[in-house]
Amino acid sequence: MKNSLRLIAILACTIPLFQSCGDDEGGASKTKMELLTTGSWKAVSIELDPPFFGVSDLLSTNDECEKDDLLFFNSDLTGSQDEGATKCDENDPQSMPFTWAFSDSETKLIYDGRELTIDKLDENRLEGTTTIDSEDLGGIPGFSFTVKLKFSH
Questions:
Q1: 10 alpha carbon, distance to own chain's centre
Q2: Cis preceding linkage at 50, omega within 30
Q3: Nearest to residue 126, comparing CAs of 46, 24, 28?
Q4: How far apart are CA 109 and CA 128, in angstroms?
Q5: What pLDDT does 42 receive?
Q6: How many Cβ atoms sit within 10 Å of the Cβ of residue 148?
Q7: Which pLDDT score is estimated for 135?
Q8: Contact, 77 vs 100, CB < 8 A?
Q9: Which of 79, 14, 6 is nearest to 40 (CA)?
Q10: What pLDDT is recorded for position 16?
Q11: Which end of the chain is more exposed for a tag (fewer CB within 10 A), N or C?
């Protein structure tokens, strides 16, 4: 019984040591700036709530030439939207510059005049929520939609 208690006490003291080691390969976790500015981002989901004329999956309504577009965020708070491998209009520029910023302790991303509340940002995914007016979709002004955006590398 005494040996069992000693084993439990040893385990209780060593478990927190193993839990704190994590999978960070010996380095500190990346900052939101580092996560956002590493590589390109491609939209994988654009969900609209409530649905607009029965459509909730906006990405499915995009032309194929829009589905390969990429976003690049640079650490100097500039970025670009790249047309990807397939351009919808050959006369359009390959990329368009923009500026961006974090706000509210890096919980929001200001990009292209919109505020995106960051729901998830890690090494593979950027997910966020914003609100748009129905006028932006060709509808009557004054009715708003919640848009959930998901990007991946």
A1: 42
A2: yes
A3: 46
A4: 9
A5: 97
A6: 16
A7: 85
A8: yes
A9: 79
A10: 35
A11: N
Q: Which residues of the chain have pLDDT under 70?
A: 1-27
User: Residue 76 has which token pair?
Assistant: 């100097």
Give the model confidence (pLDDT) of 104-127 as tens digits.
999 999 988 889 999 999 999 999
Q: Using CB atoms within 10 A of its CB, is residue 87 exposed (0-12), middle (13-18) or buried (19+)?
A: middle
pTM above 0.70, yes or no: yes
Q: In degrees to the nearest 10, what's the CA dihedral of 27, 23, 39, 149?
A: -130
Give long-range contacts, CB 8 A cutoff, 24+ apart: 101-108: 101/77, 102/32, 102/33, 106/32, 106/33
Residue 34 host element (H or E) = helix 32-36
Return the H-helix or E-strand segment holding 17.
helix 2-21
Contact criterion met (CB below 8 Å) for 98 and 78: yes
Residue 20's pLDDT is 39
The pLDDT of residue 141:
85
Using alpha carbons, select from 52, 71, 74, 70 the residue that is nearest to residue 61: 52
